[in-house]
Design brief:
Elements: H1 6-21, H2 28-31, E1 33-35, H3 36-53, H4 63-76, E2 80-82, H5 83-95, E3 103-105, H6 108-115, E4 118-120, E5 125-128, E6 131-134, E7 146-150, E8 153-154, H7 159-163, H8 174-182, H9 184-192, E9 197-203, E10 209-215, E11 217-218, H10 219-223, H11 236-239, E12 242-247, E13 252-257, H12 264-272, E14 275-276, E15 281-282, E16 286-290, H13 300-310, E17 318-322, E18 333-336, E19 339-340, H14 343-356, E20 359-360, E21 365-366, E22 390-395, H15 402-410, E23 416-420, E24 429-439, E25 446-456, E26 473-474, H16 479-483, H17 488-505
Parallel strand pairs: 13-16, 16-22, 22-23, 23-26
Antiparallel strand pairs: 1-2, 3-25, 4-11, 5-6, 7-8, 7-9, 9-10, 12-13, 14-15, 17-21, 17-25, 18-19, 18-24, 20-21, 24-25
Helix pairs in contact: 3-4
């Protein structure tokens, strides 16, 4: 309804601003406060768990620096602190370890409740040259607009604070930025709170400054699929976990693996469909392997894919170590490798450690050099000829864990070109095996700690310390690409294939 009186208009605007700027009230769990002594106890327990159980916690931060950071945080704690504020402080501390498999999360019941509330920033974003842009067309704010502020919070100055909450890996910056892009709504919520409405100041692609209020959305709608897929990733190969399609004009197969958490049978059936067993040839001569959204998973798939690409079994030896042969603080333990904790499961884990880690050292216990991939056999093996064509692997900071491993392994092959950005860590080694999930007693915060450190033998430990695998062709999305809804790394790889075909025809 249109109001005629000017003072009524001003009153309505004031009420709207108050609604926008007021955090959404949540359940008692998220607003539950605990005293400084209780919060300090949980922080010190967190340090104890990391210090005693983590396979290699001081790879990028010294023990004294980590301990001092926790003690300084305790000193700065208010007399009472709510659950979300505690999570915020713990996330900053956890970021110091720079281990991508060491995570902290809100208590499970709190996270589920909060994710059902319409309080998360709803728009997918891209971060380009230190600026945040809208990367979606199903919103009132134009695609490609630069977001200046949200509820008067200037984003350009907030990127550093937000990336300090992310789960990073090593010393590269592609993973924290990629993590922030994928989960922007969650990290904004963690840093600034949840809101029913968001007052967004933005600059349109034409340069006009505008302001608009948009409603928040439920977190579970966002987190199910990386906060929606950006506009330029609307092709089905991006919103399926796995996809296989072909570009016949370029004699190219495109294999998109957005996860390795999939059934190995799928890969065998789909890849076999493109192979003529009688003629022993594939119906394509180039392969684009897209791992840009792949944060890892089932290593068994690596074995099969490597056989398909090389005709050989995957041999990637590593030297593994652990700092303890026992499972510490079992009273706080919730699970091991996704299974609910039990006395039997703990004994099984300890037997595994005692069996494999028999060489004692000052740092803990070491295993004999071993090709661990021998233990990841899905029982599915490629019976055809190896693919001998050119392979183009697409990577980003979200290429993590097993996907980063596979990129590193493929990068050593003569017929492989890596296109995109540095992977999200794990070139020299990573702490990723035997994942223990603990619940801190006062806050209920969930902490995941990996027990086994794995250092890869076939890599340059000096040049690549703390970094991921670097591409042969560095290609990053530009603002022009964003506006044109172009997938720059993918298009670049297709351009390389086109050049190869043209040279081959001359």
């Amino acid at each position: 309804m249109n109001l005629k009186r000017r003072h009524n208009n001003l009153f309505c605007l004031l009420i709207s601003f108050l609604l926008i700027a007021t955090p959404l009230l949540s359940n008692d769990n998220i607003n539950r406060t605990l005293g400084k002594a209780q919060a300090a106890e949980d922080l010190r327990l967190y340090f104890k768990l990391i210090d005693e159980q983590h396979g290699n916690p001081y790879q990028y931060v010294s023990r004294s620096a980590f301990f001092n950071a926790i003690e300084e945080t305790i000193i700065q704690l208010p007399e009472s602190i709510d659950i979300k504020s505690f999570e915020l402080e713990l996330s900053k501390l956890n970021n110091l370890i720079r281990c991508g498999h060491t995570t902290v999360n809100l208590p499970t019941e709190v996270f589920k409740y909060e994710s059902n509330l319409d309080q998360f920033f709803p728009i997918p974003v891209s971060i380009i040259d230190g600026e945040i842009y809208v990367d979606f067309d199903q919103t009132k704010i134009p695609h490609g607009s630069k977001i200046i502020s949200i509820n008067n919070i200037e984003l350009k100055h907030s990127i550093r604070d937000l990336t300090q909450l992310t789960v990073t890996d090593g010393l590269g910056d592609t993973k924290p930025l990629g993590d922030l892009e994928s989960r922007f709504g969650y990290y904004f919520y963690l840093q600034f709170g949840g809101f029913k409405n968001f007052n967004v100041k933005y600059q349109s692609p034409e340069g006009a400054l505008n302001e608009l209020s948009i409603a928040g959305v439920a977190g579970h709608k966002m987190m199910a699929n990386h906060y929606f897929r950006p506009l330029y990733q609307s092709h089905e190969r991006y919103y399926h976990f796995t996809h296989l399609d072909a570009i016949d004009s370029l004699h190219t197969m495109v294999l998109t693996l957005n996860t390795f958490q999939a059934n190995p049978d799928w890969f065998y059936q789909r890849i076999s469909s493109r192979y003529d067993e009688e003629a022993k040839v594939f119906d394509f001569s180039h392969l684009v392997l897209d791992l840009r959204q792949n944060e890892g998973g089932d290593r068994r798939i690596l074995n099969f894919l490597y056989e398909f690409l090389t005709g050989k079994e995957l041999v990637d030896p590593s030297q593994s170590s652990t700092r303890t042969l026992s499972i510490k603080s079992p009273e706080l333990l919730e699970g091991i490798n996704g299974s609910l904790s039990s006395r039997g499961l703990i004994l099984q884990a300890e037997r595994y450690l005692a069996e494999h880690f028999v060489l004692q050292s000052e740092e803990g216990y070491k295993a004999e050099e071993q090709n661990w991939h021998e233990t990841f056999d899905a029982g599915i093996h490629w019976a055809g000829e190896a693919f001998e064509g050119q392979i183009y692997v697409l990577t980003s900071g979200k290429t993590f864990s097993a996907a980063a491993d596979f990129t590193r392994i493929l990068g050593a092959m003569d017929n492989v070109s890596i296109v995109g950005e540095e992977t999200g860590g794990a070139n020299v080694g990573r702490t990723a095996n035997m994942l223990l999930n603990y619940s801190l007693p006062n806050t209920g915060t969930m902490v995941q700690i990996p027990v086994i450190y794995e250092e890869f033998v076939n890599t340059n430990k000096i040049e690549n310390a703390g970094r991921g695998t670097f591409p042969d062709y560095y290609v990053k999305q530009s603002y022009t690409d964003l506006l044109g809804q172009k997938d720059a790394p993918f298009d670049f790889a297709l351009g390389l294939i086109q050049n190869n075909l043209q040279q081959g025809s001359n």
